[in-house]
Amino acid sequence: MTVRIASFFLVVILAACRSLFSPERPPNPPTGSATPEAPANAAPSPAVPAPTRQYRLGSAASALVTQAHVRAAAGDFPAATATLERALRIEPENPLAWIELGRVQLAAGNAAQADNMGHKALGLAAGDPNAQAAAWRLIADSLRVRGRNQEASMASARAETLLPR
Amino acid sequence: MFVTAIAAIAGIAVYAYYLDRSVTQQFQGRRWTLPAQVYAAPLELYVGAPLSMTDLCAELARLQYRATQKLDRPGTYRRQDDRIDIALRATRFTDEVRPAQVLSITAGVRSIEALRDSAGQDIPILRLDPLLIGSIFPTHGEDRIVVTPAEVPALLPAALKAVEDRKFDTHHGVDPEAVVRALWVDLRSRQIAQGGSTLTQQLVKSYFLNSRQTMGRKVREALMAIALEAHFTKSDLMNAYINEIYLGQDGDRAVHGFGLASQFYFGKPLAEVDLAELSLLVALVRGPSYYDPRHHPERALARRNLVLKLMADLKVISPQDAASAASRALGVTTRAAGAYYPSYLDFVRRTLRRDYPESDLTQEGLKIYTSLEPRAQDEAEQTLDRELARLERTRGPTSASLDGALVITAPASGDVIAIVGGRRIGYSGFNRALDAARPMGSVVKPFVYLTALETHRYNPASIVQDAPVDIRMSNGTHWRPLNFTRQTYGPVPLVRALAESMNLATVALGMDVGVTHVAQTLQRFGLERAPAQGPALLLGAVNATPLEVAQLYTGLANGGYRMPLRAVRTVISAAGQPLKAFPLELTPIAQPDVVFEVDQMLQQVIERGTGRPARAVLPADVVVVGKSGTTSDLRDSWFAGFSGSHLAVVWVGYDDNRPTGFTGAAAALAIWSRVLAGLGTTSWSAAMPESLTEVSIDYFTGLQIEGACANTNTIRIGVPVSTQLAKKPGCIAAVAPSAAERLAERLRAIIHQ
User: Fold this and answer.
1) Sequence-ordered strand ranges (E) for B81-120
2) Partner A contacted by B576 (CB < 8 A)
3) Neighbours of B633 (CB within 10 A)
4) What residues of B are in contact with residue A43 (Cβ under 8 Å)?
5) For chain A, N or C: smaller number of CB within 10 Å?
6) Closest approach of chain B CAs to the CA of A78, in angstroms?
7) Number of A–B residue contacts, CB under 8 Å
């Protein structure tokens, strides 16, 4: 259990640098959903996609995420998972909700699910480089704990390329 | 003589000692078998939650909250215009225990606008109590909810004593005076009638003995009662009585104890019953079926008022209170058929039987939290019944009754939120949603197209030939399927072939990519049995239940992830310990971009294809996707599809498999679209994967359309980024279809409907 708690903290700390509540987030993005702002005929370029949306969680889901962190920090991963599933039911299309759930899965020792949730989030995060980077970092961490270090480095690199320095 | 007397006394002493030992031991270690209690999903309240004041009040009514002027106790609410104050009951959830508290909600026409606590502080999110939707009781049928003394209104023991056993506090288990009186009555009537039993004796009779009344048994009952009194306190015995006694019958289910009786008759916790309600429960002790308030309301009313009078006579309550309570109606819930959601509970039971022996479910007092949304379930039940009745009227009288089944899930979480197993709601018989495995028909087609797109040799604008098919089968026969319209359409883009459910184009496509691969796709998406791999599989010659179809479509609704459909979220022990969770799990089964392309093609089913009648039912701005299915001779009518918030599968047919006369678009779609509209469903709005790019194509030819050439036949659709599409030649002005073409289209649409 201590190992799990420790690993949860590690994961939280790893994520904390660019977490949901990070000051790097642009001010006043729309709540709860995405805003497509790209012109309809903009040619997408997968290499350097222009940010077209900015996900954040609404206040209800954010409150649940905070509760889930408390529960996970106490080692109660089933309760943390149940709480995050509530958030997910409110904002199922929000990649950040999936990333949070994936983080708890990872802390609970369920790296394969964390990996899948990272990829699920990645699919939802199209157009939002911050959310995409967070998803890649989750994927990287889920690979690393399974000893797949080379793939993990590649995933980390994907995260890095998405973020402005 | 003397020796005989000694022997007799010794015999009695030994018998009494034996009784004393066994009664004490049994009662000491008493554990009522506690059926698992099953709860619906609690309603989540937060600013922006899509709930109107009407929705909120309907939910509070389901939970038997009482409208009052002052919020004096949990289980009450007060409404003032767009604001509602609720005194919430303390509730245990999977992940927390919420204490009783007062909550203020401001609700608009469509959503919650503010949520505050009693101090006026904003609350980000809070759940209402989960609705108790049933219990899993054993075959012998005893169901009960055990209450602690703290959960019992103080008036209940007083009322029981007043009516059943006035000397309870002082006697030693039997009331000799009452026995003599009862014996006198029995001797005169030469039969053993009711009466003379103390509460302790009634407890003994219910707990240790069967109900046959003989003199020997009466003696044994009395001795056992005396033994119990010698070893246990009065309050212990009173609490045991309150939990033990039989108070009603519901089919196979025997309602025991005041805790369950309160739920059974009034739909609320025992702690919340008022004087009139409490008196009715006490009245039932004497004969739950004779005084059944639902079947014999006049008898029940008379006996309830007698209970009130006895209480007033003994000064347990004031004459004013007695009179005021006596003027009240019985107030029992009507328990509309279906309040117990048998189809859904059936699924819950099957899920749990994989993990728990039957005895754990029926005896251990488990609490089972499910995903059932009562609102969605009620909507689904009502719509299915209403639409089937309407469809039958259009058909005229037939000997059999048209039936159907409906499954609704929340696609993002895999939560099963409603199951309707047939038209006879509340009847726990054949559960078509789980057990009616019928040919899928064209609802299988998206998986043929998905398999084709996965080869990367096709995209939604690719051309496929809709031309006569003649396949020589291994047994030498020829398979020559036809289109539903009995026409052929020649070269058509994939998107149109799927939208209009063209059989010949689908067979051509499926034969090209391989029936085996299509079968594998179905299994990847969750079909459990390996389908027969003949070419007829491409047109849905594979049986599936509505629940299985919902499972298959979950992968389409989830960007290529399979998710087990869940009815049960968690199981908690009687002591409140979480025992088992069924967490959300994802398995990647298809590339998100391929699934997105299929979903966009399915959007055209609704916009231009067989699903078009749904457009007249759903709000114009709500995007939904889905597919109709009709099997040979119109035996099965299917519609499966999803929005952003709901996935629903509808099947309509006859149990004896006779033709219905309806296509999937006519019958199942009518139900599907109305249920989704009734649920206020949200748009399907998946983000387009970055490996795709959106292009404009001509719906009829698949040719790319640029700029000014767009017309009403132009659709926007995602194709892989690198795709080179043939462009519409000579595209200077929009080419409108000729009058003949328009007429042909019209006719096709009519036929499809």
Assistant:
1) 83-88, 91-92, 97-98, 101-107, 112-117
2) no
3) 11
4) 693
5) C
6) 7
7) 105
Nearest-10 Cα torsion for B436, B442, B443, B444 = 100
Residue B359 has which token pair? 């005895």
Provide the 8-state DSSP code for B104: E
Told to judge if B442 belongs to the known catalytic residues of this protein, a careful annotator would answer yes
Instruction: Tell me the pLDDT tens digit for each residue of A141-154.
Output: 999 999 999 999 99
d(C-alpha B166, C-alpha B160), whole Å: 8
Q: What integer pLDDT is reported at residue B192 of this predicted model?
A: 44
Nearest to A114 by CA among A90, A88, A85, A143: A143
Interface confidence, given as ipTM, is 0.80
| Strand residues in B506-635 grouped as ranges (E) | 543-544, 561-562, 568-572, 578-581, 587-588, 625-630
Say yes or no for a CB contact (<8 Å) between B46 and A79.
Answer: no
Which pLDDT value is given to residue A41?
Answer: 44
Task: Compute the CA torsion angle A93, A94, A98, A100 (nearest 10 deg).
Answer: -160
What is residue B413's predicted lDDT score, i.e. its pLDDT?
92
For tokens 């590339």, the residue is: B591
Does the pLDDT at position A6 exceed 60? Answer: no
For residue B478, the surrounding DSSP H or E stretch is: strand B478-479
Amino acid, single-letter form, for residue B515:
V
Sign of the C-alpha dihedral computed for residues B386, B388, B392 and B398 taken in this order:
negative
* Architecture label for domain B36-134: 2-Layer Sandwich (3.30)
The reply to whether B2-30+137-326 and B36-134 are identical in fold is no
Strand partners, B640: B627, B649
- Tell me the pTM: 0.82
DSSP string, B420-473: E-SSSTT--S--HHHH--EE-GGGGHHHHHHHHHHTTS--TT-EEEE----EE-
Partner-chain contact B587 A44, CB within 8 Å: no
Question: What is the 3 state secondary structure string of B560-589?
Answer: CEECCCECEEEEECCCCCEEEECCCCCEEC
Pick the CATH number of B2-30+137-326 from 1.25.40.10, 3.40.190.10, 3.40.50.880, 1.10.3810.10: 1.10.3810.10
Residue B343 catalytic? no
pLDDT, residue B424, reads 76
pLDDT given at position B338: 37
Do the Cβ atoms of B586 and A117 come within 8 Å? yes
Is the pLDDT higher at A10 or at B525? B525
End-to-end CA distance of chain B: 98
Give the domain ranges of chain B. Answer: 2-30+137-326, 36-134, 692-752
- Token look-up 């796709």 returns B521
- Which residue in chain B has the smallest CA separation from A79? B95
Q: Which helix (H) or strand (E) element contains residue B491? A: strand B490-493
Q: Do A82 and B581 touch (CB under 8 A)?
A: yes
Q: Do the Cβ atoms of B132 and A70 come closer than 8 Å? A: no
pLDDT under 70: residue ranges of chain B: 1, 29-31, 138-140, 183, 185-196, 209-215, 335-339, 397, 399, 425-428, 731-742, 749-753
Count Cβ atoms within 10 A of the Cβ of residue A18 and give its class: 0-12 exposed, 13-18 middle, 19 or more buried.
middle
Residue B373, chain A, CB below 8 Å: the answer is no
- Interface-testing mutation among B125, B692, B723, with chain A (most A C-beta atoms within 10 A): B125
Per-residue pLDDT of A59-103, as tens digits, reads 999 999 999 999 999 999 999 999 999 999 999 999 999 999 999
How is B5-40 classified by DSSP, letter by letter? HHHHHHHHHHHHHHHHHHHHHHHHT----BPEEEEP
Decide if pLDDT at A22 tops 70: no
CA angle B101, B104, B109 (to 5 degrees): 140
Q: What is the pLDDT of residues B607-617, one digit of tens each?
A: 999 999 999 99
